[in-house]
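U., I forgot to send this yesterday:
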Amino acid sequence: MGMLLELIEKVAFSPDDESIYNGYRKGITGVFLTIPEIPCVRMEDFGYNSRAKQAQLMRNYYNPGEVEIAKARLFARRTAGFSSIAISTVGGEKHNRALFAEYCGDTNPHPY
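Result:
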Protein backbone atom coordinates (compact mmCIF):
# COMPACT_ATOMS: atom_id res chain seq x y z
CA MET A 1 0.00 0.00 0.00
CA GLY A 2 2.95 2.31 0.63
CA MET A 3 3.97 2.25 -3.04
CA LEU A 4 0.49 3.27 -4.16
CA LEU A 5 0.36 6.16 -1.71
CA GLU A 6 3.83 7.24 -2.84
CA LEU A 7 2.68 7.25 -6.49
CA ILE A 8 -0.47 9.25 -5.66
CA GLU A 9 1.60 11.76 -3.71
CA LYS A 10 4.10 12.17 -6.57
CA VAL A 11 1.31 12.80 -9.07
CA ALA A 12 -0.74 15.07 -6.81
CA PHE A 13 2.20 17.29 -5.86
CA SER A 14 4.03 17.33 -9.18
CA PRO A 15 4.84 20.85 -10.46
CA ASP A 16 2.67 22.16 -13.27
CA ASP A 17 5.70 22.53 -15.54
CA GLU A 18 6.05 18.72 -15.48
CA SER A 19 2.38 18.24 -16.38
CA ILE A 20 0.61 17.95 -19.70
CA TYR A 21 -3.06 18.81 -19.73
CA ASN A 22 -5.41 17.25 -22.27
CA GLY A 23 -8.97 18.27 -21.46
CA TYR A 24 -9.74 16.93 -18.01
CA ARG A 25 -6.73 14.62 -18.05
CA LYS A 26 -3.43 15.53 -16.47
CA GLY A 27 -0.41 13.70 -17.80
CA ILE A 28 2.66 13.65 -15.58
CA THR A 29 6.18 13.29 -16.91
CA GLY A 30 9.13 12.03 -14.94
CA VAL A 31 7.18 9.97 -12.40
CA PHE A 32 8.09 6.31 -12.20
CA LEU A 33 6.84 3.47 -10.05
CA THR A 34 8.86 0.32 -9.70
CA ILE A 35 7.13 -2.76 -8.37
CA PRO A 36 9.84 -5.19 -7.31
CA GLU A 37 7.45 -8.12 -7.22
CA ILE A 38 3.83 -8.54 -8.22
CA PRO A 39 2.01 -9.72 -5.11
CA CYS A 40 0.31 -13.08 -5.28
CA VAL A 41 -3.40 -12.54 -4.75
CA ARG A 42 -5.66 -15.54 -4.56
CA MET A 43 -9.40 -15.37 -5.17
CA GLU A 44 -9.91 -17.33 -1.97
CA ASP A 45 -8.40 -14.40 -0.05
CA PHE A 46 -11.53 -12.46 -1.04
CA GLY A 47 -13.99 -15.28 -0.36
CA TYR A 48 -14.35 -16.54 -3.94
CA ASN A 49 -14.04 -20.02 -5.36
CA SER A 50 -11.01 -19.58 -7.60
CA ARG A 51 -12.17 -21.80 -10.47
CA ALA A 52 -15.73 -20.43 -10.53
CA LYS A 53 -14.61 -16.80 -10.32
CA GLN A 54 -12.06 -17.23 -13.10
CA ALA A 55 -14.72 -18.84 -15.32
CA GLN A 56 -17.10 -15.95 -14.60
CA LEU A 57 -14.47 -13.31 -15.38
CA MET A 58 -13.50 -15.04 -18.63
CA ARG A 59 -17.15 -15.34 -19.64
CA ASN A 60 -17.89 -11.69 -18.83
CA TYR A 61 -14.75 -9.96 -20.09
CA TYR A 62 -12.67 -12.13 -22.42
CA ASN A 63 -13.40 -11.67 -26.10
CA PRO A 64 -11.06 -13.84 -28.20
CA GLY A 65 -11.86 -11.98 -31.41
CA GLU A 66 -10.85 -8.65 -29.86
CA VAL A 67 -7.61 -10.16 -28.54
CA GLU A 68 -6.69 -11.42 -32.02
CA ILE A 69 -7.40 -7.99 -33.55
CA ALA A 70 -5.23 -6.32 -30.88
CA LYS A 71 -2.39 -8.79 -31.48
CA ALA A 72 -2.52 -8.11 -35.22
CA ARG A 73 -2.46 -4.34 -34.64
CA LEU A 74 0.48 -4.59 -32.26
CA PHE A 75 2.35 -6.79 -34.72
CA ALA A 76 1.72 -4.28 -37.53
CA ARG A 77 3.03 -1.45 -35.33
CA ARG A 78 6.02 -3.36 -33.93
CA THR A 79 8.54 -0.90 -35.39
CA ALA A 80 6.79 2.17 -33.93
CA GLY A 81 8.41 3.83 -30.93
CA PHE A 82 5.08 3.93 -29.10
CA SER A 83 1.70 2.40 -29.78
CA SER A 84 -1.55 2.32 -27.88
CA ILE A 85 -4.53 0.10 -28.57
CA ALA A 86 -7.80 -0.68 -26.82
CA ILE A 87 -9.56 -3.99 -26.41
CA SER A 88 -13.30 -4.29 -25.87
CA THR A 89 -13.93 -6.24 -22.69
CA VAL A 90 -17.43 -7.30 -23.64
CA GLY A 91 -17.33 -11.06 -23.44
CA GLY A 92 -20.01 -13.64 -24.03
CA GLU A 93 -23.75 -13.23 -23.72
CA LYS A 94 -24.93 -12.32 -20.23
CA HIS A 95 -27.98 -13.98 -18.73
CA ASN A 96 -30.19 -12.00 -16.40
CA ARG A 97 -31.24 -14.43 -13.68
CA ALA A 98 -34.27 -12.35 -12.70
CA LEU A 99 -35.64 -12.41 -16.26
CA PHE A 100 -34.88 -16.12 -16.51
CA ALA A 101 -36.76 -16.83 -13.26
CA GLU A 102 -39.70 -14.70 -14.45
CA TYR A 103 -39.76 -16.58 -17.76
CA CYS A 104 -39.89 -19.86 -15.85
CA GLY A 105 -42.96 -18.66 -13.92
CA ASP A 106 -41.08 -18.22 -10.63
CA THR A 107 -42.90 -15.72 -8.40
CA ASN A 108 -39.72 -15.03 -6.42
CA PRO A 109 -37.17 -13.81 -9.02
CA HIS A 110 -34.27 -13.91 -6.52
CA PRO A 111 -34.41 -17.28 -4.75
CA TYR A 112 -30.67 -17.36 -4.02
